[in-house]
Amino acid sequence: MGNTKKELRSKYKTLRKQLSENEREEMSLAIANQLLKLPIWDKNYFHVFLPIAEHQEIDTELILHLLSGKDKNILISKSDFETRKMTHFLLTDNTKIKKNEYNIPEPVDGIEVPSDKIEVVFVPLLAFDKKGHRVGYGKGFYDKFLSECKTEIIKIGLSFFEAEDLIEDVHEGDMQLHYCVTPNSIYEF
């Protein structure tokens, strides 16, 4: 089994499907608890993805609770599949969330915040390697979004599974993570 993005995508989609609802919840909780150990809590603007249930993604609800408990500004995005652009909105008590045609939960509208205000971003991924490169769904949304952010933004991958040794087909434009957090480990790159 090779380690190209395509091969890793299919391997980890399969592994995720094998997790029970219960395991996913427990692992998501363990990941949220690990985040408390990271040196990020002096920051104010945090970008969080809302999970696509159909893709068995990490439940970030727990991370939202952590952040709101610490009075942080939480940003969630709306994705434009034509332009591959993400627009970020402040999550408040009044934010209405609705699934788009790809089953991604998104804010209907709200207070827009520019990318360059964001200080910490939690990045969804299917797999990652020991150098901090990730495999996403291949649409390039996050690469584009992160290229619009300040260079000192802290990028944190969240993964149910541990690191692969190496992703073979990494490109110039692929972003590198600063941390990746799994239920059992914190990787720092």
Summarize the structure.
The chain is of the alpha/beta class and 189 residues long. The protein has a single domain (5-188), classed as NagB/RpiA/CoA transferase-like (Rossmann fold).
How does this structure look, described?
The two termini are 25 Å apart. The protein is 23% helix and 22% strand. The strands form 3 sheets. The protein has a 7-stranded mixed sheet, sandwiched between helices. Strands 4-5 form a two-stranded antiparallel ribbon. A two-stranded antiparallel ribbon has the order 7-8. The model has no long low-confidence stretch (mean pLDDT 94). The protein has helices spanning 5-17, 21-35, 61-69, 141-147, and strands at residues 45-47, 73-80, 85-90, 97-99, 105-107, 120-123, 127-128, 134-135, 154-158, 179-181, 186-188. The protein has one domain: Rossmann fold. The chain is an alpha/beta fold and 189 residues long. The longest helix has 15 residues, at 21-35.
